[in-house]
Write a structure and sequence with these properties.
Shape: rod-shaped
Number of helices: 5
Largest sheet: 9 strands, mixed
Low-confidence stretches: none
Order of helices and strands: HHEEEHEEEEEEEHEEEEEEEEEEEEH
Length: 327
């Protein structure tokens, strides 16, 4: 019976045959294993959180990915076809967590087999907090200086406020959002520029456009100087009345965009009170007034009013009688 002879030959010395088959399989496995190579890439880490919460600690921007497979297929994989992510959408309470890094194969990575993928780190420790929003002002940041003799007298930002969002602890630290540097060097007239909004807190996001419109009003610098101890003159007092005592001194501040203010000195009569309406002796409250010198503007002065006491002026006869008595 030929079949019985074949079976007898197959079963004869079977332990050695099984060992030979196992050894062949091991050799094949090690051969395949030796053909596998490693490739290292860096890929961005995408973090997803549900709408009620926000990251309260920094997560890595990227992770190191090890791809292990046959060399002829391994290097055909495009780096963009290996995606790393951290899914925190299932967490519903504030706190710190360790979440595994998940890897998704796409495109050129789908048809590669065998392919082993590992990430470093394999897990990431993160904290989440309740998400809050807040409206804060936009503050411009400047670089350089205007041309000599010019100054920035006013500016306008559109929008002047933005909404920020993020974890409660981080949003509480945000008092404003600054712009990127606005160059002032060499400017001597009004100008309008677009300025990018810059975040101070990396965990906080800014809603709306990523830039604002900055409009500046530039004028020639105004020289300003304050004078104190300036005499207040009494003007227009009728000849039959006289001041019982001198008026107190005052102060005033002048500005000019054209005249040289360094050599300016106040002259009598810059501050005065009009006494022409008085008709009899007594004590009155008189309004102080100011005259602007040529090329200057009086910005402010003090006091605004003074108390004036007037008496009857001595007549010429009284003056002559007083002189005779003296002789």
């Amino acid at each position: 019976m030929p079949n019985k002879g074949l079976a007898k030959r197959l079963l004869s010395n079977w332990p050695a045959k099984v060992l030979s088959l196992a050894a062949a399989l091991l050799l094949f496995f090690f051969y395949r294993l030796n053909r596998l190579e490693d490739r290292y890439i860096s890929t961005p880490l995408t973090v997803s959180v549900n709408d009620e919460y926000a990251l309260a600690s920094q997560a890595p921007r990227s992770v190191r990915v090890t791809l292990r497979g046959e060399s002829n297929a391994l290097f055909t994989i495009q780096e963009d076809d290996v995606k790393a992510s951290l899914d925190l959408s299932s967490y519903r309470a504030e706190g710190q967590y360790r979440a595994p890094v998940q890897v998704e194969r796409k495109g050129t990575a789908l048809g590669v087999d065998p392919l082993e993928i590992r990430t470093d780190p394999a897990e990431v420790a993160v904290a989440i907090e309740k998400r809050v929003t807040r409206v804060v002002p936009v503050t411009p940041s400047f670089k350089g200086f205007l041309e000599p003799g010019y100054e920035l007298v006013a500016f306008d930002l559109k929008p002047s406020e933005v909404e920020v969002s993020g974890p409660a602890s981080a949003v509480a630290r945000v008092d404003d959002v600054q712009t990127d540097f606005i160059e002032l060097a060499g400017r001597n007239s009004d100008f309008t520029v677009k300025a990018r909004v810059v975040k101070k807190e990396s965990l906080v996001s800014v809603s709306g456009p990523d830039s604002v419109e900055f409009r500046a009003v530039v004028q020639k610098s105004l020289a300003v100087k304050t004078f104190v101890g300036v005499a207040i003159a009494g003007e227009g007092l009728p000849p039959d009345l006289a001041l019982a005592q001198g008026l107190p001194a005052g102060s005033f501040r002048v500005r000019s965009s054209t005249a040289d203010i360094s050599g300016f000195a106040p002259t009598p009569g810059l501050l005065y009170v009009d006494l022409s309406g008085l008709r009899k002796a007594g004590t009155y409250q008189a309004k102080v007034q100011a005259r602007s010198p040529d090329g200057f503007t009086v910005e402010r002065f003090d006091p605004q009013a003074v108390q004036v006491t007037v008496v009857a002026a001595p007549s010429p006869a009284d003056g002559a009688k007083a002189q005779g008595s003296a002789r």
